[in-house]
Amino acid sequence: MKVSYLLLLLSVTLAISVLAIVPSASGGVTIVSPTQGQHFSAGQSLVLVVKAPNYAGQQVTVYVYNPGGSQVYTNVFEIPSNGVLNVTLFNWPSTTSSSFIPGNYTIVVL
Q1: How many other CB atoms sit within 10 Å of the CB of residue 40?
Q2: What pTM was estimated for this model as a whole?
Q3: 50, containing H or E segment
Q4: Cis omega (within 30 of 0) on the bond before 34?
Q5: Structure confidence by residue, pLDDT tens digits, 36-57
């Protein structure tokens, strides 16, 4: 069974962001971090923690899109045997760029 979750990251500025989590499927998957309402500062790590005990050993692909819809991050991870994926995706940059602009960021976990 393929399960996907969509995380919408809303940022007021590049340095301060607010997160809204919108699950697009169920199936024993819980997104622990980032949490709704969490704020991010420049240099802070974006850590993704997903509890998916029924999917241990399976691969997931993580995408992050900026407000313009451009992909700014992608990676494939394997859910460990304990069923908890805990990964640092990246550190928020200290300045804006063509990739990291203020606005709504979307995190997709497939």
Answers
A1: 20
A2: 0.74
A3: strand 45-51
A4: yes
A5: 667 777 889 999 999 999 999 9
